[in-house]
């Protein structure tokens, strides 16, 4: 007699129809998979505005200094394009001005989370395998959205409570937290729509991030101009809630409305396509590969070029904005000795303008590290999808294959940072009439940060070689380093903890004397980590 194993049977969750059966089971699975990443990004995003408030409290001790800051910012188109307008000279409004970047960061986090648990699951075939049981058609999307939306709401709650804990008005704190959560909900829903568009997670992320970039550009141009275009951008809507400046609660209505419409549209699109398919059909490729795809380097270039181009353009544009803002930094920061001490500690120069350039490029270096990690993680994606096995079945060695992608993780950030440094130097030099002097200074400030960026590359490669399952932990390492850098710059941490951040070690040029020793140490650490990762990959089995 033949027996069969009992087939897994999922019951409808929360009494819903069979299309949602198994939502609870998948939600528990997704929460287990994201048990580290989800709390990390929710807490980090939720607490960063409060950290910004704490720094502003230490820097500006009088209302006159806050008034001067607001006035200077209002007359700088470059600063308005980067961060948006300051609607009040109150401490809360000034303190959360730069924290408005969290509206964009939470959008990135929710986009990555939703696509990871929807389109990536279909692309790898896991969704089809799970769907062969009694899991409902909408269960995967529902579980992903519940987890992502809960994370966004939790980040908003943490943000509101932490801001209120800094003795700020409750209404403004609640408004900022609500705007933060609403941004996460909106972009999570748009990511769910993007996940229905293509069979490729890469294209889905490209659609979502392309939309995010377009709305950020609309907001930047609008805020630098007459403000009209800002109303066509969800990022602009978040700013227009105006925490601590006569809050506009009604702006939450369009944010929530788009989130609801996006969620409904995602379900409607999912119901009209097959599992694994997309609404945009893939174009058939040429009958034969070009000469450029004859080796692993050509394949890596084909896979990495789109992302590299997008990041480089973004760095160039941001460099132009930073270059335009340098001249106003002295008036914006004022003459407080406390401000000068903090900026000097973060930038290393007695001249505030030079320190501002160093600080801005350090932040760009952290962003370049994010690109570098993403480029290195392409190795992990290729292995998880099974494509690397086919590649290595030919006359391609493992070291040659890994180094082809690692090369883009090293050279890509270099290109982006140096182009940003060039943009800063050209704009700043043109404004001061000293192009020959300012351009080399900005390029030098960008160049010395590259070894710090490559340390993050090395950490990612080492994780991939030694423990591929934990490779995404590299994002957590980067997040922790950014937090340590911010808090440590305000004397909030022991020096040995601050020293763990690679961005604090390069010489603080322009303004400070160049020292080769820290640069060489960072290069040595990065080289060692990359070597360990490549050697470990050569010796282990493919997953």
What does this entry look like structurally?
The protein is 70% helix and 0% strand. It is an all-alpha fold and 543 residues long. The N terminus is likely disordered.
Summing up helix and strand content along with how strands pair, one would put the structural category as: mainly alpha
Mean pLDDT: 83
Helix-strand pattern, N to C? HHHHHHHHHHHHHHHHHHHHHHHH
How many individual β-strands?
Answer: 0
Entry summary:
It contains 24 helices and no strands. The protein starts with 22 loop residues before the first helix and ends with a helix.
Task: Give the helices and strands, then pairings.
Layout: H1 23-33, H2 37-59, H3 63-74, H4 77-83, H5 91-95, H6 102-117, H7 119-123, H8 126-131, H9 139-164, H10 170-194, H11 201-224, H12 234-240, H13 252-270, H14 296-325, H15 329-333, H16 337-347, H17 352-385, H18 387-392, H19 398-432, H20 435-447, H21 450-466, H22 473-489, H23 495-498, H24 516-539
Annotation keywords:
543 residues, mainly alpha, 24 helices, globular
């Amino acid at each position: 007699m033949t027996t069969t194993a009992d087939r897994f049977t999922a019951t409808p969750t929360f009494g819903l129809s069979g299309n949602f059966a198994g939502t609870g089971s998948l939600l528990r699975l997704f929460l287990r998979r994201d048990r580290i990443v989800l709390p990390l990004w929710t807490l980090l995003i939720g607490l960063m505005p409060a950290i910004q408030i704490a720094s502003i409290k230490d820097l500006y001790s009088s209302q006159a200094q806050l008034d001067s800051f607001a006035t200077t910012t209002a007359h700088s188109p470059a600063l308005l394009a980067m961060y948006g307008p300051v609607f009040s000279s109150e401490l809360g409004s000034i303190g959360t001005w730069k924290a408005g970047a969290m509206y964009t960061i939470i959008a990135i986090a929710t986009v990555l989370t939703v696509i990871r648990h929807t389109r990536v699951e279909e692309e790898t075939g896991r969704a089809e395998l799970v769907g062969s049981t009694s899991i409902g058609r909408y269960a995967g999307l529902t579980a992903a959205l519940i987890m992502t939306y809960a994370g966004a709401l939790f980040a908003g709650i943490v943000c509101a409570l932490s801001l209120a804990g800094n003795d700020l008005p409750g209404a403004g704190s609640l408004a900022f937290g609500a705007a933060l959560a609403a941004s996460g909900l909106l972009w999570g829903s748009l990511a769910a729509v993007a996940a229905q568009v293509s069979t490729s997670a890469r294209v889905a992320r490209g659609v979502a991030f392309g939309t995010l970039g377009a709305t950020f550009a609309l907001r930047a141009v609008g805020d630098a101009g007459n403000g009209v275009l800002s109303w066509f951008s969800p990022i602009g809507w978040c700013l227009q809630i105006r925490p601590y400046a006569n809050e506009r609660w009604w702006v939450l209505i369009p944010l929530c409305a788009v989130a609801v419409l996006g969620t409904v549209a995602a379900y409607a699109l999912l119901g009209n396509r097959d599992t694994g398919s997309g609404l945009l059909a893939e174009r058939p490729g040429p009958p034969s590969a070009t000469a450029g795809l004859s080796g692993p380097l050509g394949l890596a270039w084909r896979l990495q070029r789109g992302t590299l181009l997008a990041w480089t353009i973004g760095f160039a544009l941001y460099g132009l904005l930073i270059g335009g803002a340098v001249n106003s930094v002295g008036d914006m920061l004022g003459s407080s000795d406390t401000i000068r001490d903090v900026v000097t500690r973060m930038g290393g120069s007695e001249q505030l303008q030079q320190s501002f350039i160093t600080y801005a490029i350090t932040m760009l270096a952290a962003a370049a590290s994010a690109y570098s990690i993403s480029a290195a993680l392409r190795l992990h994606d290729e292995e998880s999808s099974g494509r690397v096995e086919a590649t290595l079945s030919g006359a391609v060695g493992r070291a040659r294959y890994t180094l082809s992608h690692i090369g883009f993780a090293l050279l890509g950030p270099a290109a982006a940072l140096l182009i940003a440094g060039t943009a800063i130097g050209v704009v700043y030099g043109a404004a001061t009439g000293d192009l020959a002097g300012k351009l080399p200074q900005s390029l030098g400030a960008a160049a010395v940060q590259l070894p710090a960026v490559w340390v993050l590359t090395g950490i990612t490669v080492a994780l991939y070689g030694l423990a591929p399952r934990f490779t995404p932990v590299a994002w957590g390492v980067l997040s922790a380093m950014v937090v340590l850098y911010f808090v440590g710059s305000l004397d909030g941490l022991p020096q040995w903890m601050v020293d763990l951040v690679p961005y604090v070690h390069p010489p603080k040029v322009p303004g400070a004397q160049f020292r080769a020793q820290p640069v060489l140490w960072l290069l040595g650490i990065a080289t060692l980590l990359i070597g360990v990762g490549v050697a470990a990959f050569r010796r282990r089995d493919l997953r």
